[in-house]
Amino acid sequence: MQKVLYLDSIFLHNLVPDFLILRLILKTLRKSTTFFRVMGGAAAGAGMYCITLCLPGSLLSGIFVKVITALLMLKITAPFQKGKELLTGMLLYFTFAFFMGGGMLLVKRLLLENSIRVQGDLLMLSGMAIYGLAVFLQDWKQRKMQTHFCRVWLPGDDGNFAITGLIDTGNGLIEPVSRKPVAVLDEVCFEKMSHCKRPEKYRIIPFHSIGTERGMLDAYEIEEIQLEEETGRRRLKQVMIAVCRERVSGRKKYQMILPQQWFL
Predict the structure, then answer these.
(1) Are the C-beta atoms of residues 201 and 220 closer than 8 Å to each other?
(2) Dist. CA 253–CA 166, nearest whole Å
(3) What's the CA gap between 114 and 20, in Å, rounded?
(4) In sequence order, which ranges of the chain are alpha helices (DSSP H)?
(5) Could you state, in order of their start, the residue ranges of all structural domains in the chain?
(6) What is the pLDDT of residue 118?
(7) Bridge partners of residue 253, in order along the sequence
(8) What percent of the chain has pLDDT over 90?
(9) How far apart (Å, rounded) are the C-alpha atoms in residues 202 and 200?
(10) Are 140 and 27 in contact (CB under 8 A)?
(11) Are 107 and 84 within 8 A, CB to CB?
């Protein structure tokens, strides 16, 4: 028995989910690109899928082609420069594809159980609904974090002491060499951590802000701090903390600005 494959239909029904998955990856990694680049990456993925359907191959070769396809899609979509970024993007791609595919299969099963005819367009709409739900959850999490305060325990000279930190979505400070996110601490608080001022842990962090086009902050790599969250305390090791010679909060509501990456 011969099967007839309509490659145009297969291409379209892979193009839309691939486009949505790439949009989710960009949103998760906070990368921006053009619509045409995302569409180009999705088209490359859908095209490669159509090609693999026409070629014989083993399971191992199929997995290899999928990995190459994911790499091609990501490189077309956004400028993933570093290997770590590319690896993260690939992991996100396969994770989102797994959950979106699983969700679409679940919808298909529910429809069949209720004697509803399953069509490709209906499954594609269910994939779009899953994408909408994922975007909503991401936005909800980000909005929750925008005004969120967190208790931070720092290693003082006389033992650990607690301060209040602000989770700031606009804190984009990065240590240039290690690419680690950097928190900003009041100098008054850092004076209680004089044992952390070791020369081998010293870094200089470039920054720019309103009123300061270019500036430098002294920073140190701290062995361990603790974040007190609703679920309990969480330890972070080898974190970068820059010292601010002015108060980070004029009203003294918080003493530390925390990078959002610590909570993702």
Answers:
(1) yes
(2) 9
(3) 28
(4) 7-29, 35-53, 59-77, 83-113, 120-146, 187-190
(5) 7-143, 149-263
(6) 47
(7) none
(8) 22
(9) 6
(10) no
(11) no
